[in-house]
Specification:
There is one protein chain. By secondary structure, this protein is an alpha/beta fold. It has a domain of about 100 residues: 3-Layer(aba) Sandwich (Rossmann fold). A four-stranded antiparallel β-sheet has the order 1-2-3-4. Strand 1 and strand 2 form a beta hairpin. The C terminus is likely disordered.
Length: about 160
Amino acid sequence: MRDQRRMLVWEEDGLESSVALISTVGISFVVNGKVDGAAIGDSQTQVMAGVLGPFLLPQAKRAIVVGMGTGSSAGWLAKGPAIERVDVVELEPAILHVARVCAPVNAGVMDNPKIHTAINDARGGAPDDARQPTTSSCPSRRTPTARASPASTPRSFTAPPPRA
């Protein structure tokens, strides 16, 4: 138990969840007692989720990310050459601290002027509520109690139908 306490870097009881940062091999964040993402260990998946949208839709200027997590998906998505704005919808305000701590691996997501964050359930929409050509959900194992639904947790990018 004492070893586990030494790994604890930060903790906060948020509005929707208890959130913590632990240091094992790099920084991982814990939501309601369960590791939900790692800045280094999950970086391949998180970065790919961010760069995939601009790769598939190079003309896309706007995007939305459901869930901030470590911020890697949103941060790397904002690096897309044509991307002008990325809206991030996050349910738990305490997760924003996680993204700040993970700045070295998320392309400075919290200080990027292209990134616009809303604290809201994803069903509530983006801050500007404009239709986004690309949608991503940060890779996650989290299912908020009584909040999860297919509408609130999209898992893939959306693209226009193929031309006939």
